[in-house]
Amino acid sequence: MMDWTDRHERYFLRLISRRAWLYTEMVTTGALLHGDWRRYLAYHPDEHPVALQLGGNDPAALARCARMAEEVGYDEVNLNVGCPSDRVQGGAFGACLM
After folding, report:
1. pLDDT of residue 57
2. Hey, which residues are catalytic here?
3. Is 2 contained in some domain?
4. How far apart are CA 58 and CA 15, in angstroms?
């Protein structure tokens, strides 16, 4: 959920449950490759297990971003293929990938 499941929200949720998987807000490949990737990939060590939700439509960019997520210690990379947002589908990813 963009603009909701930031690292502060995930930290709060971790206080409620120690075992539930936590997911980041969707981050696009463009944001990671051309923006402040350290900010987008930041999380607190207590958040584990934590998954990066990645949005994009270019296999090479998705692979590069998945490697970045692995390098900073994410437990899983989740490819967003379900977001119905017009904004997301305008970028040719999300639900239109199904």
Report:
1. 87
2. 83
3. no
4. 36
User: CA–CA separation, 65 vs 16, rounded Å?
Assistant: 29
Instruction: Look at strands 50-55 and 76-79 and give their pairing.
Output: parallel
CA angle 9, 79, 18 (to 5 degrees): 35
3-state helix, strand, coil in the chain (%, to 5): 50, 15, 40
- Identify the domain containing residue 54 by its residue range: 7-97
The CATH number of whichever domain residue 21 belongs to comes to 3.20.20.70
Kindly report the pTM of this predicted structure: 0.81
Q: How many domains does the chain have?
A: 1
Q: Is the dihedral of CA 23, 28, 29, 35 positive or negative?
A: negative
- Distance, in Å, from the CA atom of 46 to the CA atom of 11, rounded to the nearest integer, reads 7
51: helix, strand or coil: strand
Give the pLDDT confidence of 11-63 residue by residue, as tens digits: 888 999 999 999 998 899 999 999 999 999 999 899 999 999 998 889 999 99
